[in-house]
Design goal:
Blueprint lengths: L1 H19 L24 H18 L6 E3 L5 E6 L5 E12 L8 E7 L6 E8 L5 E10 L5 E9 L2 E8 L1 H4 L9 E9 L2 E4 H6 L17 E8 L6 E9 L2 E8 L5 E9 L10 H16 L3 H13 L7 E3 L3 E6 L5 E2 L4 E10 L8 H5 L4
Protein name: Lipoprotein
């Protein structure tokens, strides 16, 4: 009975409150547009301009291809490129580190260019001329689908990059389980170039007193030093130019110097029909190199060989460790410029254990 009275009383109060309650009117909700809040870009104006310049340089190569674009709205910045094979890649640009690597009072940078696609990933040491202009740029490839090596665990500390190199199993035709070789690498900028530090202590070419190919002769329009992106040896590139004669010279290697010379020579088309033309041009080119570079001991034996033998593109070996070949063909004649090209490759193989990239990169003995 007590529970019934309570229920009756509650029901009476409920009905009374319901009747007396004022009628509520619905207030229409105001329509508000969502405003996108832009995240601040966590880098300085100088860093922004540097990344923009590096991206623009790459963009210029692919800008004619549909789908190539730059995005500087969010950090890391993104460059989407489409290559000639219509393969699409996105590269992300960011500042990995900054310091004064050459002690000139101007901030320099290490830039990360990261991608998991065909474009690959790399880090770039950028030495600045001033706050806006680049003096030097040195690239090291970290990964690409068919690169020689992969670099992992890349870290920056005290002006140095440390990383671990392994063989790219795709390139070396081994399974990932079989690919158990690795090497610890350290990169630092010193003495006017970026070096992998084992090169300085273990490679014979590091002991060259003169970091040049040509002697001190006039008409050298370019001398540059950098680092090989695959085996981390020092590279030297020089250009000799007199009127329409042009010679590009490159040197790399660890214990075994590898030379590449490319000649562009003004020639009348009628000379190509002379049966002695090619041999004469090649011997003349080699004679010039023997006289005007610091590597005459490597070049003179080749001159002597070609004075007695025909010019072929096949690789030739003499003196047990001197390997070379020459490319000089009628097809290399430029009718518009009336110039002829000769390419000469030379390797002096002092160390037989450095015949391929991984052996060079790990300074094999």
């Amino acid at each position: 009975m007590k529970h019934c009275l309570i229920c009756t009383l509650f029901l009476t109060l409920f009905i009374s409150c319901k009747q007396e309650a004022p009628k509520q009117t619905k207030v229409p909700k105001k329509h508000t547009e969502k405003t996108e809040v832009k995240k601040p870009i966590p880098i300085s104006a100088e860093e922004f301009n540097l990344l923009k310049k590096l991206m623009t340089d790459e963009y210029e190569i692919y800008k004619a291809n549909e789908g190539t674009r730059m995005d500087l709205r969010e950090y890391p910045f993104a460059l989407s490129i489409t290559d000639e094979a219509e393969s699409r890649s996105t590269i992300y640009y960011s500042i990995l580190a900054k310091d004064d690597f050459n002690n000139d009072g101007i901030t320099d940078y290490v830039v990360s260019e990261s991608s998991d696609s065909m474009a690959g990933s790399r880090f770039v040491f950028v030495i600045m001329k001033d706050k806006r202009n680049i003096e030097e740029q040195h690239d090291v490839l970290e990964y690409a689908p068919f690169s020689y090596n992969n670099l992992d665990e890349t870290k920056y500390n005290s002006k140095k990059i440390t990383t671990v190199a392994t063989k790219n199993w795709r390139t070396y035709d081994v399974t990932e389980d079989e690919n158990n070789e690795s090497a610890n690498l350290v990169f630092s900028y010193q003495n006017g170039n970026l070096y992998e530090e084992s090169y300085l202590t273990k490679c014979k070419l590091a002991k060259l007193e003169s970091k040049t190919i040509f002697n001190s002769i006039p008409n050298i329009s370019r001398r540059e030093r950098s680092i090989d992106i695959h085996n981390y040896t020092e590279t030297i590139s020089e250009t000799y130019k007199v009127k329409d004669t042009l010679i590009h010279a490159d040197l790399s290697g660890c214990d075994n110097p590898l030379f590449e010379f490319e000649f562009t020579i003004p020639v009348a088309k009628e000379q190509l029909s002379n049966p002695d033309f090619f041999k004469h041009q090649v011997v003349s080119a080699l004679t010039f190199l023997a006289k005007n570079t610091q590597f005459s001991n490597d070049i003179n034996p080749i001159i002597a060989y070609y004075e007695e033998n025909e010019i072929t593109e096949e690789q030739t070996t003499i003196d047990h460790n001197l390997l070379f070949n020459v490319f000089a063909r009628k097809e290399d004649y430029n009718r518009k410029k009336k110039t002829f090209s000769i390419r000469i490759n030379i390797e002096r193989r002092y160390n037989a254990h450095q015949a391929e990239n991984w052996e060079i990169a790990t300074r094999r003995r």
